[in-house]
Amino acid sequence: QVQLVESGGGLVQAGGSLRVSCAASGSIFSILTMGWYRQAPGKQRELVAQITSGGSTNYANSVKGRFTISRDNAKNTVYLQMNSLKPEDTAVYYCHAGLLARYDYWGQGTQVTVSS
Predict the structure, then answer these.
(1) Tens-place pLDDT, residues 28-51
(2) What is the DSSP string of 66-84?
(3) Is the CB of residue 96 less than 8 Å from the CB of residue 35?
């Protein structure tokens, strides 16, 4: 069992930066693909960024060049550094951990609000 706890959300002005973190419990963190998803009011949840156990990354086109996902396996933590934030980045950001069909875990979410 893996529990995910996000932190670091908040209110920031457009153009600003914010880093959200996701701390995972358990001993299998290093083998999991970690991801950040977001859900804005009235919209579907969407993938923002992913990082595999080997460090390969994948980003939504809307955040490429502005957001960076990273992981620290020694701390069981994944980060999302968000720069040049835009009002349309406002959403609840969720941490996800998974591997094939065997592991599938979600955090409770953290609110990110970007004011114009």
Answers:
(1) 999 999 999 999 999 999 999 999
(2) TEEEEEETTTTEEEEEE-S
(3) yes
